[in-house]
Amino acid sequence: MALLAGRTVFIGRKGRVAGVGGVAALGACLLLSACGSVQLGSAAIVGNQRITQATLDSQVSNFEAAAANYPGQVQVTSAETPAAVLTWLIRFSIENRMASEAGVSVSETEIQAGVESVSQQIAEEQEEEGQSASLTPGLLNVGISPQMLSDLGKYQAQLDAFAAKANGGKLPSTTAQNNAVTTAVTKAQCTAAKSLNIQVNPQYGRFEYGTTYAVESGSTANALSAPAGKPTKPSTSGLTPAC
């Protein structure tokens, strides 16, 4: 996410951050200490709420059904899909907490405006890449099923509302304002994520705080594939909030 010329820019294909590569659940448990900390039937625990396995499975099924209609156009593989979808389910929770802590609320009209903003941004990116505008493949390529579009619109609307509040009531329009608001958003997101004590089922990888807040399955793959006799200690970079 970045703020440019008074506009919150949605993460497009060039910024796709969902985890890549498959990691066996048993192998992940050997490397990560969180195996016993996520309740049975949970894909993740965010604050006092569970993202259930059933919820994730349903959204993954929605994603795969939509992707089947666009052969060759969707870059997210079947192995990547669960982590990609789970990433966004967690991000929505982080954004909800950030908005709540900042006293920001959005109306249904603002959510629909958020949907339109995201749609426009995807179309512009596709045009820049010489592709015909098509919303659904654009969403799928960043891990969003069509059924999650309303949640994404809310996410966008919350970012815009927070940015406007941080900038004295209007979206930033200068580089200096943009930089200041981006700093404020970064801090607020980090604080919100930290307060939620996010735990991800190691079956899907680990949660990377960093600046993208993503479930990264590839983060343990290198350790699992290390040469015999040369165990590699998995990196702890990004495992805890920087705030």
Chart the SSEs and their pairings.
Elements: E1 2-4, E2 7-9, H1 25-31, E3 42-46, E4 49-52, H2 53-67, H3 81-102, H4 108-128, H5 135-140, H6 149-166, H7 175-196, E5 199-200, E6 206-208, E7 214-216, H8 218-224
Antiparallel strand pairs: 1-2, 3-4, 3-5, 6-7
Number of strands: 7
Going by helix content, strand content and strand pairing, the class is mainly alpha
The gyration radius over C-alpha positions equals 18 Å
Range of strand content: 5-15%
Order of helices and strands: EEHEEHHHHHHEEEH
Main pleated sheet: 3 strands, antiparallel
Q: Order of strands in the sheet with the most strands? A: 4-3-5
Gap between N and C termini: 18 Å
Question: What is the compact description of this entry?
Answer:
By secondary structure, the protein is mainly alpha-helical. The protein contains 8 helices and 7 strands; from the N terminus they run E-E-H-E-E-H-H-H-H-H-H-E-E-E-H. The chain has helices spanning 25-31, 53-67, 81-102, 108-128, 135-140, 149-166, 175-196, 218-224, and strands spanning 2-4, 7-9, 42-46, 49-52, 199-200, 206-208, 214-216.
What can you see in these coordinates?
This protein is mainly α and 243 residues long. The protein has one domain. The protein has eight helices and seven strands; from the N terminus they run ββαββααααααβββα. The chain has helices at 25-31, 53-67, 81-102, 108-128, 135-140, 149-166, 175-196, 218-224; strands spanning 2-4, 7-9, 42-46, 49-52, 199-200, 206-208, 214-216. It has a three-stranded antiparallel beta sheet. A two-stranded antiparallel ribbon has the order 1-2. Strand 6 and strand 7 (214-216) form a beta hairpin.
